[in-house]
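Backbone-to-sequence.
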């Protein structure tokens, strides 16, 4: 019985091999002249579906940290083959990935598109593949059209698959069947869409009357990358005779002259014999005004052999006036582009009108979608700042360098192959920023890592401030929404002078920590205060002082006064510098004339020691008690100064506490 079973298994395997060999005779062999592209691929794997080796396969793109997949390209997925000449086919055969691999990506449902000119595609047929329950049967699946079709290009659109990936070990085309008729393709329904774009997408046509092209280096003109001819190309500058050459990075800026909705970019490498200048890594940026750019996506390429065009899809449709391509890595440090194309949105996708690049999500609690001007004045990073983090894999200075494509990342360890994370530091993480001198801060803006993995994107953080660089007080708690838009989040802080800021990240995706940029701001844009207050973005300043006490609070944060408030002749006197600066005013002292000048929001107040006279923008006023020096500090009636600077003053007799609110 056992021998019979072995014999039957052997016979079954033999028959299977014979059937496979017989079936293969009706297939076209793949040729190097075929042009192969995919809407998504991992490490240039599209060509592996045509290399004649079933052990290799095309796999759509994903990002993993350790054994956990943190992001992936979603369905539908497309793979397109363009032939050098029209080819008659009668169907195709799909070879799933080998059974030694996961079933992920095995194709279940698909749509076939065909093109008679290599550019315009028509939806031709739809189909499904059947499998056993556990997908252990990885035998080739054949889809015969029942007729012959003459095509210049063939596209397979994967609409359903295991776990939403797409994998193909081999994709074979069936030879023309002489017993079948040849179909006529209705080209009136064809859609022009770019070789690697989805069937209902197109590209923006270059308009030399509106588009402005610029590049940081050129031997061959940049307009050759937009002339629709892939045999011409832009090339960065070099001079062989002088031994001169420009090296990466290179920047290409395309200003459309108007706002356009863009969903992605197609990059076509040079198509001649040389590999020099073929882009290996680039970051794409978008701008709504043609001046200020936000990172959209970083792409890596491996196109030296295939020379196939590569599509980079943005996480969201963006409305932009300009696109910038920053080439950070290229073969031999030159730069070349045969063609650069901008994808229109697919049908049904709606860009967020007036949004900044890669936006459209709901801002995190406490954040504002207002333009940067509403945050106030950006405090420029100074190398004298002392910055540290409790965990570092990629340096913390990356979060303050003004570059969205560099990041701080917390520490982790990988296996010997460098591919799998075996251990890593976990939340909470602390970032400390110490300033050489106390500076006024009213808000903080956090930009998550842009594109790719979500790991390390903040979900919760607490911000602390210190007036002396040692003792910290909690200023604000912030929650963040994690999505592919990766919008920067602004957090309003109590306006005050801080010697140090501490950020404690209490929750982040996968318990890593990352930041593309961390910025500090002071003040609010002129004319924006009331609007921002109405939205709950700008909080009112609350200052509390007690009679005969040097301890005061600003938004709950304790600070020490140079002199305690006192009551004299029925008026409460306070240190003028402390109150004025806490309200955001500038204070100047003239030792010769013994005069104090206070400036805030276009209002100027001038007082003199031992005088009741006050000048307010040239108008005269009288104090109830003269300004005077007590304990080395200039003291003035608190109600007059506070109300003159637009604040409300409250008095609690029981605790002898003064509350100033603005």
């Amino acid at each position: 019985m056992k021998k019979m079973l072995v014999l039957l298994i052997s016979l079954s395997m033999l028959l299977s091999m014979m059937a496979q060999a017989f079936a293969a005779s009706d297939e076209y062999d793949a040729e190097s002249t075929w042009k192969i592209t995919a809407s998504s691929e991992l490490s240039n794997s599209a060509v592996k579906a045509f290399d004649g080796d079933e052990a290799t396969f095309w796999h759509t793109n994903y990002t993993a940290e350790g054994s956990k997949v943190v992001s992936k390209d979603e369905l539908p997925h497309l793979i397109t083959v363009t032939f050098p000449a029209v080819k008659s086919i009668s169907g195709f055969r799909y070879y799933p990935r080998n059974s030694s691999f996961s079933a992920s990506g095995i194709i279940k449902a698909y749509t076939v598109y065909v093109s008679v000119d290599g550019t315009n595609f028509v939806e031709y047929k739809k189909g499904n593949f059947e499998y056993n329950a556990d997908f252990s049967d990885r035998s080739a699946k054949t889809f015969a059209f029942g007729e012959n079709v003459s095509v210049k290009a063939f596209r397979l659109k994967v609409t359903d698959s295991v776990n939403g990936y797409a994998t193909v070990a081999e994709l074979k085309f069936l030879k023309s069947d002489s017993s079948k008729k040849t179909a006529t393709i209705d080209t009136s329904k064809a859609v022009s869409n770019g070789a690697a774009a989805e069937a209902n997408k197109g590209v923006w046509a270059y308009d030399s009357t509106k588009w402005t092209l610029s590049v940081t280096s050129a031997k061959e003109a940049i307009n050759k990358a937009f002339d629709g001819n892939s045999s011409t190309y832009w090339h960065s500058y070099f001079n062989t005779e002088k031994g001169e050459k420009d090296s990466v990075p290179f920047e290409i800026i395309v200003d459309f002259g108007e706002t356009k909705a863009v969903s992605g970019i197609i990059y076509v490498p040079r198509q001649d014999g040389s590999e020099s200048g073929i882009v290996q890594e680039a970051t794409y940026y978008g701008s709504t005004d043609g001046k200020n750019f936000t990172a959209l996506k970083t792409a890596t390429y491996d196109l030296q052999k295939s020379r196939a065009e590569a599509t980079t899809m943005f996480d969201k449709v963006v409305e932009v006036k300009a696109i910038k391509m920053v080439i950070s890595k290229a073969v031999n440090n030159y730069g070349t582009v045969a063609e650069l194309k901008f994808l229109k949105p697919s049908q049904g996708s709606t860009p967020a009108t007036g949004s900044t690049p890669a936006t459209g999500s709901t801002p995190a609690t406490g954040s504002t979608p207002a333009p940067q001007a509403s945050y106030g004045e950006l405090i420029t990073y100074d190398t004298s700042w002392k910055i540290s983090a409790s965990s570092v894999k990629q340096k913390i200075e990356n979060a303050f360098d003004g570059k969205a494509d560099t990041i701080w990342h917390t520490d982790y360890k990988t296996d010997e192959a460098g591919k799998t994370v075996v251990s890593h530091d976990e939340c909470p993480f602390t970032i400390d920023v110490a300033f050489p001198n106390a500076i006024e801060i009213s808000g903080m803006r956090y930009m998550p890592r842009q594109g790719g993995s979500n790991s390390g994107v903040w979900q919760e953080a607490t911000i602390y401030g210190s007036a002396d660089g040692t003792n910290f007080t909690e200023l604000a708690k912030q929650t963040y929404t994690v999505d592919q838009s990766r919008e920067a989040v602004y957090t309003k802080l109590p306006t005050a002078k801080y010697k140090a800021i501490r950020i404690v990240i209490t929750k982040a995706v996968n318990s890593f920590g990352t930041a593309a940029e961390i910025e500090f701001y002071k003040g609010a844009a002129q004319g924006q205060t009331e609007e921002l207050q109405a939205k709950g973005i700008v909080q009112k300043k609350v200052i509390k002082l007690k009679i005969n006490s040097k301890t005061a609070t600003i938004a709950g944060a304790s600070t020490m006064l140079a002199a305690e408030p006192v009551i004299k002749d029925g008026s409460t006197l306070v240190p003028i510098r402390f109150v004025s600066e806490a309200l955001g005013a500038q204070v100047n002292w003239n030792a010769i004339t013994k005069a104090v000048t206070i400036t805030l929001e276009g209002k100027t107040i001038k007082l003199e020691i031992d005088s009741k006279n006050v000048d307010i923008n040239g108008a005269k006023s009288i104090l109830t008690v003269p300004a005077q020096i007590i304990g080395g500090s200039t003291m003035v009636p608190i109600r007059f100064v506070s109300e003159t600077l637009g604040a409300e003053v409250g008095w609690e007799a029981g605790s002898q506490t003064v509350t100033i609110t603005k």
